[in-house]
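ok trying again, last paste got cut off:
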Amino acid sequence: MRSFFPSIFHKDDPRTALHSRLDNVFDDFAKDWLTTWPNARAEMGVMPAIDVKECAEYVEIKAELPDMEEKDIDVDIRGNYLIISGEKRHEQEKDEKGYHLRERSFGSFQRQIPLGFNIDADQITAQYKKGVLAIHVPKPAELQQDAKKVKVDFHE
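nice, full thing came through this time. structure:
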């Protein structure tokens, strides 16, 4: 991918090397942006969208995994990471009024969610319903402390 900045330097100009480096910076930015931006991942068709909600006693993770089967989804724990992985498979075949359509798409994914505390695997619950995987991870007792209000004095 070339930079969208026009080349204003001559081949022998010492600033040409700087211009080339700027091209590389913008190329790297575009490549990183396309592989990390949520909508770009969705357009690639594999990486599921996730929501993470932290409450006082637990963390809730929801992952959009439409049309997946139990055998295609894995939930693992490594230290303080919850890992959702799997493989999406989609096959469609239509045979209607003078045309035949066959589409297939496959891809694997893995999402690692750092929770910031060691996870007790025996306490986790997970449920898959209507294309959404919902995972409930209780926090350790020492992290379930009540929040306390702090009075803020405003001075003008």
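cool. Helices lie at 15-36, 38-44. The chain is about 20% helix and 40% strand.
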